[in-house]
């Protein structure tokens, strides 16, 4: 199993969701609001401490756990849909998942 994580622009979330849900193998995803900043540009100096402390941009973090054979398809779909061609479009990466299971109960059992 793999975990696909992505940081994208918030305005790309709806189109990305539609593109992922269209995949027959799509397992679902978790979405969080986050903030981030890029690496500092070495050619432009910050003017004051306030700018250094407030230069965070709203982003969306997506987390998906999927079977190995589906992970690359999801990865490529994210990179295709989330891009605008500008710096700050985001980041997507895949990590190995040793074990994962859905948490649900299918049959009633004794109360504990």
Automatic annotation (TrEMBL):
Q: Which Gene3D superfamilies match?
A: 3.30.70.120
Biological process annotations from GO: regulation of nitrogen utilization
The record, for Pfam families, names: P-II
Q: Which GO terms describe its molecular function?
A: ATP binding; enzyme regulator activity
Q: What InterPro entries would the database entry show?
A: N-reg_PII, N-reg_PII-like_a/b, N-reg_PII/ATP_PRibTrfase_C
Quote the SUPFAM superfamilies the UniProt record gives: GlnB-like (SSF54913)
An annotated GO cellular component: cytosol
Q: What is this protein called?
A: P-II family nitrogen regulator
Upper lineage is:
Bacteria, Pseudomonadati, Pseudomonadota, Betaproteobacteria, Rhodocyclales
